[in-house]
Amino acid sequence: MSSDRPDxxxxxxxLIELRDMQxxxxxxxxVDHVSIDLYPGEVVGVLGHNGAGKSVLMKMLSGALPxxxxxxxxxxxxxxxxxxxxxxxxxxxxxxxxxALADNLDAAANLFLGRxxxxxxxxxxxxxMEAETRRIMSRLNPNFRRxxxxxxxxxxxxxxxxxxxxxxxxxxxILIMDEPTAALGVEETRMVxxxxxxxxxxxxxxxLIDHDIHQVKAxxxxxxxxxxxxxxxxxxxxxxxxDDLLGMIIAGKKPGEAPRLEEVLGGEVH
Length: 270
What we know:
single chain, alpha/beta, Rossmann fold, 2 domains, 4-stranded antiparallel beta sheet, 9 helices, 23% strand
């Protein structure tokens, strides 16, 4: 993370509060009484192994899954989120790992897909959509040049730019990003990091689902670690080492907590 980033002000009202969130599938508690929050200009990593519950938790926030219990607060007000349309009404947008882009369309067509701008005569206004795409891209990725190319011809980092621009253009204040640097090279990962830095400067809050501790240390301000559906804890990434985070993910222990004897011995203590 850049050293010139300002400290996060956590004295005010969070952008998002997830309180006592619960979700079960049959007898499995996928999310078991989990509470986390997010402040403006902050990136909170949501970590854990596969099956830890991190994606399920975020899907409840995005409206993709109904919750069995718990409450969601947006800017201090209780929010009713039962589907993705509800989430968008609260300016919550999700950028999935597969990005949900139409490969054969260019950046502008993807940005306005399903929400096309039209002329006074009702025709799709391609020129205005490209102008708006160039305007938003100038804020997020000034080096973006391939406006006429189908997005399948773009690099991974450029594709992320298009997906992020689409969310930001429609006034997102909270982003859920699902492993945004997965399968990207070093330079493309750096591009995504710069995009995240810019979003932070603009005051957006980001939940970043990831399992890569190095990326979490580089991109996030705090990390909330889940294991077996429960929240192990939330830590400042500047104060927690990679070993601390690894211990939370694997052993389910907060930094400084000693493991039980049976965990050290690898079996039961009689």
